[in-house]
Each structure stands twice: as structure tokens, then as C-alpha cells.
Design a protein that fits this description.
Number of strands: 11
Structural class: alpha+beta
Strand order of the largest sheet: 6-7-8-9-10-5-11
CATH class of the largest domain: Alpha Beta
Order of helices and strands: EEHEEEHEHHEEEHEHEH
Distance between the termini: 40 Å
CATH superfamily of the largest domain: Leucyl/phenylalanyl-tRNA-protein transferase, C-terminal domain
Largest sheet: 7 strands, mixed
Length: 228
């Protein structure tokens, strides 16, 4: 049975109550406060119906540990020759819009509706959501965006106008996250593309242990917001 959030201050149910497909709850808003509460509870919004968001906590959880990143020889060559220029948080709105309109075989981008775009722009303005931009000269050719709270980065979506641009963005990001000693990149649900780069499925309980460790770090003085 799906839990329906009726009040803005209503807590999320335990992720263990999620359906087989990961659906845990519906309702509430996409306010900054609600989104931060979700991510620090191991929950993320995905899809909405008539502006009613759905909240997920899948089992297994698809993640990428920074030290397990796989980089192909061809991608290493691109970095060696500085094939692209990378920036961070230079044009968040453009990145999320490109993710929303990206042509995907599985329609995976259709969930980024105007209400999601507005919500994540607000989250970006508060210092939680971040973008990575990949440029070829002055043209934006790829990128990604996600949410960083404490030492966990939740990857939301990516796009690529030029071959390998989204991979370039992810590799650049993860190398930066390594330096910042991030615990994990939450990829949320399985993707063959990300699996080829080292992402793997772990039990939800294992992921929740990482969430608890991250929350404990925050409670003991670690800043929630990370500067890129």
C-alpha cells in the first residue's frame, strides 16, 4: 500500500515499506526542505502526476563508489588531449533543461517536468543541487546535475549532444568527488551505461547504512553543502 503524504511536515515512511518497484510514497511538495529531507532519508522523487510527486527507495540501490570508477582507454585519451572544457555550476538551468529534452530510447528524461525543473533550480540556489557542464569551445555539448548533501552525491540526469560528453562530465565529477572524500554516488536505478563505468547494485539496507554514516558526519560538524 502506497503511503500518501498529506501534510508538508509529515515524515516519510520507512524505506523498507517501499513496493517492489521502489515506490514508497506519493504527495507532498518539491520544496527545498522536503527534498533535503528525502535525500537524507535515502529517498528521491521520480515522476509526478498532476504535480503530485512520487517518492522512491528501490531495493537494490544502484551506486558508484568513487574508487571503483572505470575509465576506458579511449576516454583517457580524451582527457589527455583536453578534448573538452569542464565547468561546475556555470549554467545549472541550461543543463537541467537539456536533460529534460534529451532524446532517450527509454523515455527516461520525461520525468523532468516543469515543476521538477523549478524545484531543482531552487535547490541549486540554496547550494544543494549542482551541475557539471562540458564545452566544446563555446558550445555546451554535455553535462549532468545532481544533489550533494554531506558526502553523498545523488546523480539525477545527464545529457550528451556530442559523443562521450556526458561520460566526460561524470568522470570529471567523480575525480573531484574523490578529492573531496565522498562516500558514494547514488545512481538510484540501474543503467547499463553507468554499469560500464563501474556502478553496481547494493542492497537497500547497505545503502541506508551509508546514509546513516553520512547523516552522522553532518551531525558531528560536516557541512551539508559542498563547494565545487
Amino acid at each position: 500500500m502506497i503511503y500518501f503524504i498529506q501534510k508538508e511536515n509529515s515524515p516519510f515512511p520507512n524505506p523498507d515499506f517501499a513496493e517492489e518497484d521502489g515506490l514508497l510514497a506519493a504527495g507532498g511538495t518539491l520544496s527545498v526542505e522536503r527534498l533535503v529531507q528525502a535525500y537524507t532519508s535515502g529517498i528521491f522523487p521520480w515522476y509526478s502526476l498532476e504535480e503530485i510527486p512520487f517518492w522512491f527507495a528501490p531495493d537494490p540501490r544502484f551506486v558508484l563508489f568513487p574508487d571503483k570508477l572505470k575509465i576506458t582507454k579511449s576516454m583517457l585519451q580524451l582527457f589527455k588531449h583536453n578534448a573538452f572544457r569542464v565547468t561546475y555550476n556555470a549554467c545549472f538551468k541550461e543543463v537541467i533543461i537539456n536533460c529534460a529534452i534529451a532524446d532517450r530510447k527509454d523515455d527516461a528524461g520525461t520525468w523532468i517536468t516543469p515543476d521538477f525543473i523549478d524545484a531543482y533550480i531552487a535547490l541549486h540556489k540554496e547550494g544543494y543541487a549542482h551541475s557539471v557542464e562540458v564545452w566544446k569551445e563555446k558550445e555546451l555539448v554535455g553535462g549532468l546535475y545532481g544533489v550533494a548533501i554531506g558526502k553523498i552525491f545523488a546523480g539525477e540526469s545527464m545529457f550528451s549532444i556530442q559523443n562521450n560528453a556526458s561520460k566526460y562530465a561524470l568522470i570529471a565529477l567523480i575525480e573531484k568527488l574523490k578529492a573531496l572524500q565522498f562516500l558514494v554516488v547514488d545512481c538510484q536505478v540501474h543503467s547499463a551505461h553507468l554499469e560500464s563505468m563501474g556502478a553496481e547494485e547494493i542492497p537497500r539496507n547497505t545503502f541506508m547504512d551509508i546514509i546513516k554514516k553520512n547523516n552522522s558526519l553532518i551531525e558531528n560538524g560536516l557541512q551539508q553543502k559542498i563547494e565545487f
